[in-house]
Amino acid sequence: MEYITLNNGVKMPKLGFGVFQISKEDCEQCVLDAINVGYRLIDTAQSYFNEEEVGNAISKCGIPREELFITTKVWIDNYGYEKTLESIDESMKKLKVDYLDLVLLHQPFGDYYGSYRALEKLYKDGKIRAIGVSNFYPDRLSDICAFNEVTPQVNQVETNPLHQQIDAQKNMEKNNVQIEAWAPFGEGKNNMFENPVLVGIANNYHKSVAQVILRWLVQRDVVALAKSVRKDRMKENFEIFDFTLSDDDMNTIKSLDTNESLFFNHQTPEAVDMFINLIKQRRD
Question: If pLDDT is split at 50, 70 and 90, which confidence band does 94 have?
């Protein structure tokens, strides 16, 4: 495993296991399998509704707590200073831990300033080792860096070969914030696994397209989150530290960038409406 060092000195694995869209029924075993394969960074969120199952796996896995890097995210409906404090306490109970390695604000909407102050308090109290945000575009990230006491350690954003976040990463580096990738495979959209450029590079290294994508991210110093419910695929995704992509191949992959999300643009009114509906659905 390779590691990066965050702006507060905390070390974070460059490759992690994400549990987005893994059902409650499957989640515990999937996390146990991932830890058995070698993953130590486990990424969940309040809005995934599987924190408790992740906690069951953490308590059963037999790996010392200090060797695991556990991340969760605060959902928009829990934004605001007091609600965020209460929600993180609930998350810690579900995860069966007495501290969290990283907590992120999941979306750049609502009272994220109040929530960020709550993260700062828990960080200073030693309940959270690192704090950050998710889906914050360069303007919002620069804003929250400029007007808060603790600079975010991490910003988790969609990052994949078709949406590479080149300028956003430069802005994060300027602000000393670590970029972390969700949807590194773009959920297979736009036939990413059949992309002829990626397939050609993968064949040259006798690797899979998924392995090439994860290796490309790691070489860009992007923390990558891979998800699978199959243990053999988890193992395959983990086996990316025995080869290095050439500069030519890195540049070839760079040419695939469309600079557009495969999902949606948070900066549109339609995205705000979508999240308002999501909040209502999760309340029900």
Answer: very high
CA 250 to centroid of chain Cα atoms: 22
Q: How far is CA 222 from the centre of its chain?
A: 10
Q: What does the pLDDT look like over 229-276, one tens digit per residue? A: 999 999 999 999 999 999 999 999 999 999 999 999 999 999 999 999
CATH number at residue 9: 3.20.20.100
Q: Give the CA-trace dihedral at 28, 65, 104, 167, to 10 degrees.
A: -100
Percent of residues, the chain, with pLDDT higher than 70: 100
Relative orientation angle of helices 51-60 and 81-95, to the nearest 10 degrees = 40
| Average pLDDT over all residues of the chain | 97
pLDDT at position 37 is: 98
Question: Kind and range of the H or E element at 145?
Answer: helix 138-146
The answer to whether the beta carbons of residues 264 and 227 sit under 8 Å apart is no
Instruction: Judge contact between 68 and 97, C-beta under 8 A.
Output: no
CA distance 158 to 76: 18
Domain that holds residue 50: 3-283
Counted domains in the chain: 1
Active site residue ranges: 48
